[in-house]
Amino acid sequence: QVQLVESGGGLVQPGGSLRLSCSASGSFSAITTMAWYRQAPGNQRELAATITRGGSTHYADSTKGRFTISRDNAKNTVYLQMDSLKPEDTAVYYCYMGLFGSRLSEAWGQGTQVTVSS
């Protein structure tokens, strides 16, 4: 059993910042890729950012330059620092982790709501 617990969502004004966290616990040997996805109402889930175990990052064009993904391998935790937030960033944000040495190959968080509004 693997659990991902997210925190840090909320309501913020345009131009503001939020930091999301997602920590994994359970039975696995290692976490490979970590990522954040988001899903706005009526839209498909889309990738926001990814980070490899070695620290290489990739961002969607819509988040590049404003969001920063990072990870702490010792704590099995991934972070998403979101700056200069826009109303179009409003969505439910889900963390994703690729697993090694587990009955599961991947795990997802439960989702955390981010609302950008004045």
Describe this structure in words.
With 118 residues, this protein is mainly β. It has no helices and 11 strands. The strands form 2 sheets. Strands 2, 4, 5, 6, 9, 10 and 11 form a 7-stranded mixed sheet that branches. A 4-stranded antiparallel sheet has the order 1-3-8-7, with no helix packed on it. Strand 7 and strand 8 form a beta hairpin.
The number of E-state strands comes to 11
Averaging pLDDT over every residue, what do you get? Answer: 96
What is the CA-based Rg, rounded?
14 Å
Q: Give the uncertain stretches in residue-range form.
A: none
Structural class: mainly beta
Distance separating the two termini: 40 Å
Count helical runs.
0
The 3D shape can be described as globular
Largest sheet: 7 strands, mixed
> How big a fraction of the residues is strand?
over 45%
From N to C, what is the helix and strand string?
EEEEEEEEEEE
What is the helix fraction of residues, given as a range?
A: under 10%
